[in-house]
Specification:
By secondary structure, the chain is an alpha+beta fold. Helices cover about 20% and strands about 15% of the residues. The longest helix has about 50 residues.
Length: about 280
């Protein structure tokens, strides 16, 4: 009595492997998109937590923002907001966008800190008041500050009258407070040019500081906390339509209303949505 032993032939195995490979090639981009969307959602959740913290700070300070000083002294590397907000921000994870959780030890050094080299890295300040480093992925819009009386410029940024000082202003839904950022703070102006590459920007305080917030972590978008305490997924080119300071022109030359064309932008930004 004979038995017929049946099994996969080599050809059949190769066909199965090929089918699996094709399915993986189809599914992997979709899975990657889902992963990126999850990180974007987590980043927005972080900023919602910051919204509560900033609202609490403003409520505790007669609706006013930071002066830019600590104990009457000017201090660099955003220490004025980092130390002021530390009592409100108990979880270090809220300082980090899930797309940029580490500083890998390179980048430029200045003012006691390092700016990241690539958009998937965080900034780091070597020491805070406790002697530990601060690591973060977000930065403050410096124009929200409430400078002391008789101050003409804040860290070289002038005029002081351009600062918002308080959250109780009209159009607060279009005024950024806290955003994804290359650095701890920035003072963007409507005439600032876009960065030529999506890598560490040239750090020139008081010049082209839109570079600091034009960081591509969410597929052509950066997440922003607005002054009405809402959070917003903001297109990189849309940054030039937000009202960063009191004198910021929201229909300037880098907007569609101001005549900007897709080919006006650096090559890495041209395929992103225009505003």
């Amino acid at each position: 009595m004979s038995r017929n032993k049946k099994g996969f032939t080599l050809i059949e195995l190769l066909v199965v492997i090929a089918i699996i490979a094709i399915l993986m090639a189809i599914l992997m981009p979709a899975l990657q998109r889902v992963k990126q969307q999850a990180k974007t959602t987590a980043c927005l959740a972080n900023l919602k937590q910051w919204a509560l913290m900033f609202a609490m700070y403003a409520e505790d300070n007669d609706s006013k923002f930071f002066s830019g000083q600590i104990d009457g002294q000017w201090t660099g590397s955003g220490r004025f907001w980092r130390e002021a907000m530390r009592p409100y921000s108990k979880d270090d994870k809220t300082w980090l966008c899930p797309q940029a959780t580490k500083n890998r030890g390179h980048g430029n050094t200045g003012g006691g800190g390092r700016m990241p080299l690539t958009s998937d890295e965080a900034w780091v300040i070597e020491t805070n008041v406790d002697g530990d480093p601060d690591v973060g992925s977000y930065g403050l819009n410096g124009w929200i500050l409430n400078p002391p009386p008789n101050t003409s410029a804040v860290y070289g940024r002038s005029p002081a009258e351009d600062h918002w000082r308080t959250a109780n202003v009209a159009g607060s839904n279009n005024i950024p407070v806290f955003t994804g950022s290359w650095w701890v703070d920035s003072w963007p102006r409507h005439e600032d040019n876009p960065p030529q590459k999506n890598v560490q920007p040239t750090d020139n305080p008081n010049s082209n500081e839109m570079d600091r917030v034009c960081v591509d972590r969410h597929g052509g978008f950066v997440n922003c906390l607005m002054m009405d305490w809402t959070v917003k997924k903001t297109g990189l080119k849309e940054l030039w339509t937000l009202r960063w300071s009191r004198s910021f022109i929201t229909n300037g030359r880098w907007t569609k209303a101001g005549g900007a064309q897709p080919d006006s932008w650096p090559e890495w930004m041209r395929h992103y949505r225009d505003y």
